Amino acid sequence: MLFTQKTAVEKRLELKRQLADGALHQFPGAFNPLCAQLIERKGFSGIYISGAVISADLCLPDIGLATMGEFVDRGRQIARVTDLPAIIDIDTGFGEPVSAARTIRLMEEAGLAGCHIEDQVMPKRCGHLDGKELVATTTMVQRVRAAADAKMDSNFCLIARSDARAIEGLDKAIERMQAYVDAGADVIFPEALKSEQEFATVREAISVPLLANMTEFGKSRLFNVRELEDLGYNMVIYPVTTLRLAMGEVSRGLDAILRDGDQNGILDKMQHRKDLYDLLRYEDYNAFDQNLFNFEVHDTPAK
Known about the structure:
By secondary structure, the chain is of the alpha/beta class. The chain has helices at residues 8-20, 33-42, 51-57, 68-79, 97-109, 137-150, 165-168, 170-182, 196-205, 225-230, 241-260, 273-280, 282-292; strands spanning 25-28, 47-49, 86-89, 114-118, 157-162, 187-190, 211-213, 235-238.
């Protein structure tokens, strides 16, 4: 936290540069700040903060139960520990369009580089589940316009997500997404596309940068980076991947402790303490502290 070098403004400019450079940029999901630091250390382009993961971390389903404040807090915790641009899910904007506008201001203040807002009704559902419902296009346009108008920093990236493909079909979904661009969206996030051809059709129809969601066990197959880059996509998120990896290993480790009575058989599955301390920059903090307290106090003769 003490040693990040970039301001929120600089990180937003970096994201803007990425979206214009013609390459595909990978944004793995971070389930906590420590995970965000590891994502940066590995050399990825940015950090994604999933609403589903925020909810799961609170032991809640992804149906709109987590609050705006909980989202803002987690966004701030993650954004402040990394020099990478971080984007966050804000679900449907936490209420009426004015609530979406307030959310944008709060996310800017928290140091985020961008966010995405979606066109579902509340209570919303995971984008790759059935049974979703959409608001009218006019309602989502109001959300997007309110969010766009609320930006203090014009480089804060507003991403409009549409869940319409699974409900209204691809043509109607494209009509919606074009309306969201007209309302002020900087990036479009077409959710739950089903084939390579659908990804290509959306690219042909939409003029602004596009975000692809490569979540596991969903409607879309898991495209490789090269495939998505060839299709002309600009950003790809892996929203729940790190949480699934972590919880899978935790589950297997707990089973081993129950079975064996100790952790000796699973030490090779763990992050070593020295690697954790390195990731935390333990020695940097220690050096910072020592530099502050390296003075000597001398007795001053009485006058």
